[in-house]
Amino acid sequence: MESSSNHPNTALAGVKVLDLSRVLAGPWATQILADLGAEVFKIENPKGGDDTRVWGPPFVDDEVNNRRDAAYYTCANRNKESVCIDLSKPDGAELIKRLAAEADILVENFKVGGLKKYGLDYDSIKEVNPRIVYCSVTGFSQSGPYAHRPGYDFLLQGMGGLMSITGNSDEGEPLKAGVAVCDLFTGMYAAVAILAALNHQRVTGEGQHLDCSLMASQVAMLANQGASFLIGGQVPKQMGNKHPSVVPYQVFPVADGHVIITCGNDRQFAAMCKEIAPPGFAEDPRFATNEMRILNRDALESEIINFLSCFTRSEILMLLENCGVPAGPINSISDVFDDPQVQEMGMRIDLDRKDGQKIPTVAFPVQMSATPAAYLKAPPTLGADTAEVLERRLNLSKREISELRSAGVLG
């Protein structure tokens, strides 16, 4: 398979990815690979494609083709080619197997064992391509008592412990995060594991099967909260915007709203106190060290709220910046994209579809000096690249493609 990439300076130029995943975790991983230069073929069911194409509003309206794709779909499918193949049909499964035979990576998020009946499971694909890095994304892994269950981000935020430490303990109902973070964690871990396995493949010629689950990813992302339980034995609780290990590190009210103040060490705390508190406050034995501030959290919080009550948001943020104390506003999403730092980093990327329709997307967040991310293709319409890819990759003739369409194998 010869790469069609016209951006050879990307880190993954020439790498070929067969993406059988949909929704968010799998597509997030493959979009990362695509941004880094890999050629990604997104295999979609002709009857509607990726579930998230209809997860709206809002929608991107395509008046020319009378199609509507949800913004949710566009967030994770940049730089890919959409190929509509019905893998439930033998001819469709055979086409996918032929594409897999020449691919470096395959990503799928079917239910455990779901691809075996089509001959597209790891063992079957390994027979035609022993070098392939085959990544399976599931809710609960390939084995264990929950392996058969479908996995959705919301469920795993709850089952994986995140919701037990999110939100305010006095407000009753536990809260999930405002973004599908468990899916995103899993997509990130999948991308890292794929790149590690790809390096192993390049060194040894050996492929492997990657078992990447939302459950394991969420448990790993408990980070310091998980470590605190394992070492200290105490079960972390919901603390609202307060930090379990650093004080003050939270939201505070000011005269015209709220600000975030994060004193990560005793020096920063002393610098803040010098600007807002009476002389000697930072040396008070109750507050002089972070350990003591944790023990006297409530008393300190009351004092700081009193000190800040006479400041506006802009006043306190400027004051704290000048004295080296980390602080910031609570921005709306609109504020984020208007922020001069976000604009300087180029975090909005507008891409044109083949019909000229412009799709705004959010950039890959890492600046790479030698092999920067490339933005070559807008999130594609359903089946936009089916004929082109099959002609280019499998040497199918227009007649063969037409016959397969008539048989319902292609969209």
TrEMBL record:
Gene3D superfamilies: Crotonobetainyl-coa:carnitine coa-transferase, domain 1, formyl-coa transferase, domain 3. Keywords: Transferase. GO terms for molecular function: succinyl-CoA:(R)-benzylsuccinate CoA-transferase activity. It comes from the Bacteria. The keyword Membrane does not apply. The keyword Cell wall biogenesis/degradation does not apply. Its EC number is 2.8.3.15. Coiled coil: none annotated. It is an enzyme of class 2 (transferase). InterPro entries: CoA-transferase_III_domain (IPR050483), CoA-Trfase_fam_III (IPR003673), CoA-Trfase_III_dom3_sf (IPR044855), CoA-Trfase_III_dom_1_sf (IPR023606). This is Succinyl-CoA:(R)-benzylsuccinate CoA-transferase subunit BbsF. It comes from Pelagimonas phthalicica. The lineage of its organism: Bacteria, Pseudomonadati, Pseudomonadota, Alphaproteobacteria, Rhodobacterales.
